[in-house]
Every structure is written in C-alpha cells, then in structure tokens.
Give the backbone structure.
Amino acid sequence: MKKTLLLISAIAFLFTSCDKDKAIVTDITINFNHTVNGSELMTNSMIYTNEAGENYDIQTLKYLISDITLHSENGSSLLLDEVHFIDISDESTFSLTYNEVPNNNYTSISFDMGLDTAKNISNKYVNDDFHTTMFWPEPNGGGYHYMKLEGAYNNDSTFYNTHTGGTMGADYSFNHVENISLTVDNDLGDVSVNINMEINNWYNSPNQIEFSSYGMGIMMNMMMQMNIQMNGITDVFSVTVDK
Amino acid sequence: MKSLIYLLLGAILIISCKKDLAPISGCTDNIAINYNPNAITEDQSCNYFSTTPYVIETPYGFPDMKIPSDNPMTVEGIALGEKLFKDPILSADNTQACINCHQQNFSFSDPNQFSTGIDNIQGNRNASALINLGWNTSFNWDGSSLTLEEQAFEPVTNSIEMHNTWMNVEQELNSHIDYPFLFKQAFNINYIDSSHVVKAIAQFERTLISTNSKLDRYLKNEEQLTISELNGYAIFNTEKGDCFHCHSTNMFMDNLFHNNGLDIEPFIDIGRAKVTSNPLDNGKFKTPTLRNVEMTAPYMHDGRFATLEEVVEHYDSGGKYSTTVDPLMKKLGVGLQLSNQEKKDLVAYLKTLTDNEFIGSD
C-alpha cells in the first residue's frame, strides 16, 4: 500500500515537474485607447474645447496604424502587424493580438501613423475592411486616408472634417518610437501594450488649428497636412506596457 | 435420361427461385439521374447532374466577391435564377416578375418613384438598381437583409409587392413542366423549396456586374474624357464636391449608411434606425452605387429627385440640418457654391458611369 502510494506520488511529481519545465508563451495584445484632455473619449457630446477655444464633439474617428514593430537590444525586430484599422464605432478594432512572441529583451516599440509611400498606393489593400472607408481618390494623390476625425464645433450644425493623408502623393505619415522595458522569457506570460491617442493634441502645439478656418476640409491643403503631422509627432501618441 | 430431366428441372427451379428472391440492385438515391425505384440494394452506380462552376473575375479596384459557401455559383444555377427573375410565377396572380420593377434598360431599377405591386398598391421607397450587388454587405435602403438570398425571400410575400405565399410558389413550381428538371439540374433536388428559389435568384443577381463605362475605359487609357467630364471628375473626387467619401472606390459606394441632409426632423422614414432601433441611425440610408446613375432615375430612397440636376442642386445647397446629419455634410448652411458650369460638369461626369452593354443597349 505504501509502495503504491509512493509510486503514484512519484508519477504525479514527474508530471508536475514536466509542466513546470514547459515554457509559458507570451501573447502580446496591443490596445488602442483614445483620450481628450486626458479623459477617455466620449463620442457625440460637445464637451471638448480646443486650444483655439472652440467647443467640439467627436462623431467619427477612423485611422490606420502600420508597421507595429518590437525592437530588441540585439538589433532584431519583430513585426506585429503591417496595417491595423481602428474605427471608434467598432470595438472589435480596438485591439490586436500577436501570439507567441519569441523570447528576447525588447527595448522599444515603433509604429507609423498612416501609411508610408511604399504602402500608400491606390487599391493596395483592396480586400481589407478599410479599403472603401479610407479610400483617398487619385486626383488628390491616391492611396488611403491616414485618419478621418469628424464632428461638430461651436454648434450642432457646423462640422469639421480632419482628414489626413498623402495630399498629392506627399508622405505625411510619421513614425513613433517609444522605449519600453520588456523582457520576454519562459515565465513572463501575456502582456498588454497600450497605444494612446490624445485627440486634442492634433489641434495644438506647435500649431494651433481652428475649425472655423480649416473645418471644411484639408485634403488638398499641404500646409495643413504638415502642421497636423507636426502636432502628431509632438505629443499625440504615448505607449504604456502592462505586464 | 430421367435423371437428366430431374437435374434440368431442378436447375430451372433454382434459377427461377433465385430470380424471385434476389433483391434488385441499382441506384437507390432518388435524386440521382439513374434512380431505380425498384432497386433495393445500392450498387454504387448512381449518377448525378454535375454542375458547371461559374467564376467571377474581380474587376479592377474591386475586392474579391464574397460568395456564400452554401451557394456556389454555377452556370445551371444562374440560368435558373434568370428564368425565375423574369417569371411572373413568383407573384400571387402570376402578373409580376422581379424584372417588372427592376427593368434592365433602367439598370434593373424602376423609372417610377414608387413601384406598384399586384394589388395596385404603391410602396414608399424607390426600387434599387441592381448593379454589382455581390460587393454589398447589406441590402435594401435600410440594410434590412444581410445576404442576397435573404433579400429575395421578401418581395415574394410582401403584401404590397408580389403578395404571394411561399407554399403557393413551391406548389406551382413543383407542378410546373420545366422547373422540377431545372432545379434538379442546378441543385440535385427533387422537391423545390423556397431556399433553392432564392439561391438561384441570388446567383443570377451576382452576375449583374457593370464595369464597362466610359470612365472605366478612361481609367484604362482606352478613351478620353471631355474637358467638362474631367472638370466634373475633379469636383467629384475632391472636397469641392465631396462626393467620393460616400460614393467611394471603383464601386462608387461605401456599404455604409448616411443622413445626407434631405429633411428636417421628424423624419417620415427613419431608414436605418428601423433595423437597428438606434436613434443615432434615424434618417440614415445606404449609399447606392453611382454606376449607371444616368439610367436609375428617380433618385434618393424615396425617389424625390427626378433628374441628376436636382440631385446636384440638393448637394450644392449644403443640405438641411437634423441631429443625425453626417458630419461629411460640412458645408451645411453654406453650400458647395458650384457655378452653373461646374454643376453641368459634375452631371457630365456622372454620365460617364453609364455602361451601355450592361443595360442591353450596346
């Protein structure tokens, strides 16, 4: 009896130790969060004020983030997704998951807001969901909108459309790099990376943008595309990691 | 000798016995072409109608068409669908077919503001043109159907349209001289049911593809546009006219729902909100494609505009404010401020979307 018990516990121990030896895989979930002046975005309510003093609401937010990449200290990089489309009216677009991230010491994450010249080509993503929604016509340079940010300002019946993209084929996409400390090893488990867009910052520093001057469209306005790009580079995106 | 006779008799007995007792073998599947109703044992000899796959080529700038896995396109299914589409047998009094309100020379639409059903009752929405339907993700002005198969169920029993019952349709089709054979050929079925009727119609509808307009030929460098058409092309595709945000890509639609500022509240027809029950969808309707728009008058969900000039005037006015009007109508209260020539140019451009081959006049 004692012998059998011993045997059973020995076998049980064997199994358990086998389990322990097995590496825990790390899946990375990238979450896309949206804030206005630091608070979580609430659509369709005129509760926001830009630097120019205009009250506004947000009714539409659709944008493309591309080349989401982890970089490791030994110089290697891991592409998590080529193009990701986020639509504020569709929660399923607020995150993406990359399964089984290889063990490494990752020191930074980078991504592009919009599509660079190599990707911003008419009909390149014809079978993707965003093809019809983000389409940017040929007479404007072709390719895709990087972002559609729309709503009303001052009163409910005056609208602004902040549509960014490659006006006349110029590349106004920009790269955001954030240093992180992420060591993926056999014990880490799943990780979340949160990419936050601070929406109000599209309209200030260094360039204050008023809806009353530019609300009716900037798709053909190269200077405004550049100004918004600069504002974007400055402080629109931030990244945090939850381990 | 005597024994020989006995032997012979015995042999005959055995053979004849065998004949009586042996189960007849043959094809026992009643949907096979060589079905043997007397056969008791299956001998694996069944032959079935084989269908001929039909491949849809993806036009330039279009996504691949998504075809439901339970309704693959076949030459036989499409031919049957076309026959059904044109056959008044689907209506209760056998007077109306699908094609009566979706006429080919009007790009499979109805030139009347509202279509009139078999009981002389009019509907309250304009019959949609049937063009490039396979690339739509929902159907009807409010998107109430998610597939063409689902959509085809509806007009047959709608009391102000064909006002029939599916039981009656099935009865008539099953006792018809041609249909049982055609359904067997297309779907390998013996009994015609409603689900196969709508499958056949949907297959036919997926073949109604229009991509041979003057604009298509221009984009392929095969034909030149006039100065006026080119001006219209630029107005359409920039924020000056701002048509392209909804009528986007080579499909000239975005598969989305918008309130384009036609009316103030309360709306007579709440549109998309009928399906979603979301007040934010009040007054929103599905963007129609603009391909063949010259042939699909009158315009809007209620056919309120008789001409393209009236449509252009509406957008030029900037539209009317309501709580759900699309922020893309950003010139509300201001208007597009197009000159008379620019309005003419825009209409000229819209007419380059006409595909004469598609409407059967080429």
Observations:
- The CA atoms of residues 145 and 165 of chain A lie 5 Å apart.
- The interface with chain B takes residues 44, 59-60, 122-123, 126-127, 131-133, 135, 137-140, 150-152, 156-161, 215-217, 219-220 of chain A (CB under 8 Å).
- The longest strand of chain A covers residues 60-72.
- Chain A has a mean pLDDT of 93.
